[in-house]
Every structure is written in structure tokens, then in C-alpha cells.
What does this fold into?
Amino acid sequence: MSEKIEENKRRKVKRKKWTRDDTELTLLAIPTFVWYILFSFLPMFGVIIAFKRYQIFPGKSFLYNIIHSEWVGFDNFEYLIKSKSLYILLRNTIGYNIVFIVLGIVIPVTLAIMISLIYSKRKSKVYQTAMFFPHFLSWVVVSYFVYAFLSYDKGIINTVLEVFGKEPVQWYMESKYWPFILIFMNSWKTTGYATVVYLASITGIDPSLYEAAVVDGATKWQQVKNITLPSLKPIVIMMFILNTGKIFYSDFGLFYQVTRGVPASLYNVSSTIDTYVYNALLSSTPIGMTSAATVFQSVACCITILLANWIVKKIDSDYAII
Amino acid sequence: MKKTFKNQEPIMKLNRIKQPTNILFNIIFIILSLVSIIPFVFVFIISITSETSIRKFGYRFFPKELSMIAYEFLWNEKDIIINALGISVLVTVVGTLVGVILTTALGYVLSRPNYKLKGFLTWVVFIPMVFNGGMVASYVVNANILGLKNSIWALILPLAVSSFNVVICKTFFRTTVPDSIIESAKIDGASQLNIFARIVVPISKPVFATIGLFLTFAYLNDWFQSSLYITNSRLTSLQALLNNIQKNIEYLANNPSAGLSIQQYVSQMPTEGVRMAIAVVIVLPIACAYPFFQKYFVTGLTIGAVKG
It folds into this structure.
């Protein structure tokens, strides 16, 4: 708050002239600015491909091709909506994300509170380090880990099943298990990191609050409910808004690598907008239609993040991020 | 830290959870820790299991027969492995340097309260946070307009800057670097570039470490850029190599030695072990290094959480 007042004061005494300082700072900012133009804003104009029927004029540059391709309005989107896959893609992308967001808050917050209550700080450090490990692995590597467990003829799970006299399972062919496998793997990879982040905010809570609570005779459970959880609210809400903003995006590596390239047998349960676009991009699908899918994704996300932020702002403006 | 803990001890000792609860929590976390670590241990064991043992019994935690054949094989193919390792290291080092410079420079500029273009540049950073052109448009721009296909820059440039990191830097500089230092340096006639390099950088090590580590692991673990833009095998990084091998193990047997055909060569390959051995080669350095850097990953996020 005081910063805001100070800033208003500064604004009043703001010099009108362009100073040497401004020139130097601009020079310092130019390389990054150029990066933003090339890698962030140029692609934003690339969305016009979604409204064109992309044609290749022999011997001409790509830019020429785009500019001289015919405008088709929303034809590409119509085609996308009519294709059956859109329903599955949306259902999977949003469905998994909702589960991930809920579990990504409930599990780590619970674990963070539990780990903060353990007597030995040294042990708690060891647990944190161990649980942090999956965060540093790429999904390619993780897919090998998963394969070691799920391989049909060599995987350890089938070996165990056989010991108990059960039939081995063709894991990479049976779609019914995959929602659980994908959710488990996502939690496996992200829980440790999130736990440590929430724990960092728990350790930042003023200890005198707890002391006062003890003096008043509060039980441990009451302290968690009335001190720890409310203190975590801002960071939980921030995580919530950030993740809601990505609800139309999926963690491509999770869906593509862990399933070993989204085989046809698992298409219904593991294809998301991103895996669809990736496969389309590297195949001969018309680029206009693929582009329509990503434009839809970007616009939908933009709306969701602003909406989530707006709702949070309505409830309590202190917690909004924008 | 310890001292304050001691002062609180009498009152806080009453406030502990009960002994049985403590034991229960410990058991839960021991299980979770094992679940996090064991897959890697398992893959390591597979990589040192002999091929016949794998064929007969499948993957086992306690293999009947050990062998180093997979690592020997990798050693024989060291040209490919070392080339891939070289690409990974090059991309990671150059990428991290470029990324840190670009990110912190803009972060610093945005942290200067009186800068004229501050409002404009804030929008430049903010807009990509809520809207982007999407994968197709980025691909088209990078591959066709900027001509990055099969160029090492395709692995480096697109990942160099993220608005999230810029905001972390901006908030850090705004809150920890005192304006008075910068003002007095300006009075002494130092240029902003000088101030940034000589004054701000040395007192802002934590944020540099944080951004640097974010970027290092992003580059080290990247296979996605590679799978989109790289077809030239000389530019394949370790992660991309592992990704390609998942599709066909023959990828490794590009140039079989001494008069063997590719088929013969492949049939002699300890295929199962080799896949796992490459995964181990990638993960082992990370596993050894990350405990020392872990804390920066958390501080980075908590700095970013402060509204700037």
C-alpha cells in the first residue's frame, strides 16, 4: 500500500523530458524486447493462418504463401467442430486438468502441514529432498520408468500378477486403466515440488500466532484449521488462478511420452488438444485446421484466466493476481 | 534459527503432535520418499542386469545375473553418446547464459520506477502471460520465417525468456536493491549498463541463481524443441536421443563396426539394458546435483508470489 502512495507521489514529480537514463535503460531492454517480438508477438499474428486456406505457390516464400492464400473466415473452425475428435479432446483436456488442479492443491497442502509437524527437522529435510526428485526428470525419462513397471512381458507388475496366479495385463492396450495411471503419474511428478512450496509458506507463518493459540488452549487440529490453512489461502489462490489459466493446455510430455506416443488403443482416454496438434503438425493434416485448434486453445485460455481472476477479485480483491 | 527455537521450546513442546501421530507421519513420508526414488533405482538395476536374465525372468529388483554389457555397448558407441552429450551441454550452457542475461536485463529495466517506457514494456511482458499464438503459429514462425529448422538456435532461443521469470527478477530488484545506491552511482556518472553489471549483479546473486537453475533444468530436460525442429543426427541432444530410441533402438546402430550388417549388429545389441542405461546416464548427474540447488527453486517461486 505504502508503495502505491509513493508511486503516486513519484508520478506527480515525474520529469517530462526524455533523459540519458531513459536512453540507457532502453538500450538495456532492446535485446529482450526483440526476443519478445520474434518469439511471442510474431506468432500472435500467425493466428491468421487459422482463417486462411493455406496454399503453396511454387518457388515463393512462406510469407508470400500466407499473404496470398484465400481468406476462409471460420471454415477451419467449423471443420474442427464437426470432426468427432473435438469432443474427446476437450473432455480429456479439461477433465484431466480439473482432477489435476484439485489433487494438486489437496494432496500437497495436506502433506505440507503433516511434514511441518514432524518432530525431527533433519528427517523432514530428507523426505523433502526425496520427494522433490521427480520434479527434475523429463517425461521422456519418466516414460522409461513407467515402462519398467508396465511392460507386458517383462514389467514387474505383470510378474507380480503372475506370482499371484492372475493373468498378465496388456497395459498399453487397455484404456480403462489409463485415467488412473495418468493421474497417478502426474501426482507422482508434481506433488513433491508443490509440497515444498506450500511448506515454505507454512514456515513463514509468525510463530507467536501458535503460541497465543496454545495459551488459549487450542488443540493442534484447531490451530491447523484456524491459523495454518487461512495463512496458506493467498498462495493456494494464486496457484489456482495460474492453473485454471492453463485448463485448455495439457502437459504434453505426460500424455505423449508416458503412453508411448498415444497409441490408437489409448486414443480415447489419453489424447488432448496438444497431442492432437503435435501429431497433426508432423503429419499431412492441413495446417489451417491444426492452427484453428491452437487458436481456439489460446483464446479459450485467455478468457478463462481473466474470468478466474475476475471471480477471485469479486470475492476478495487482495487475492487477484492481475 | 536454533536460538529462537530454544526460546520457544518450553511452550512449543506442549504444542507438539502426539508421539504415535509423529510415528505415523514419519511412516507415511518414508513410503512417499521411497515411491519417489525407487523407479530410478529399478531402472538402474535393469541397466546392469544381463540380457539373458531379462529375457528369461523379465525386469527384476533382484536379478539373477549382473552384467555391464549395456554400458560397454554405450562405450563402443561413444561417438554418438559424446556428440549428444556435447549438444546437451552446449545448449544448456549457452541457453542459460543467454536466458539469464535477457531475463535479468529486462527485469532490471522494469524495476526502475522513473523509466519512461516502463508502462509499455510491462504490457509487452504481460500480454504473453495471458495470450499466445499457440504451438502451430510458433512452429511456423520459427521454422519458416526465422529459418531455425535444423539449427542449434532452435533449441536455445525459444526457451530463453519467460514472462514469469522476468516478473520474478523485476520484483526481486524492486524489493532488494536500494534506490539510493543506484542514485548515488548515477551522480558519480556511471551509465545504467555499468550500474547493472557492477552494482546490481553482485548484490543480486540469489535471483541469478534461481533463474539460472530454472533455465538449466529446462534446457537439460528439453526434448520437445528437438522433436519439432531437429532431424539432423549431429544436433541430437541426450534427451532427444532417448526419445528417438524409444521409437527404434536401431537408431544407435547407425554405423555398425567391422563388416556386420545392421541387422546382425542389432541382434547382438543388449537392447533392453541399453535403453535403461541411457536413462541412467541422463538422470545420474541430475540426481547427484539437485539436492544442493533445491532451495533456489523454492525461493524463486516465493519471490514471484509477491505482487509487483
Q: What stands out?
A: Residues 1-6 of chain B have pLDDT under 50 and may be disordered. Chain B touches chain A through 105 residues (CB under 8 Å).
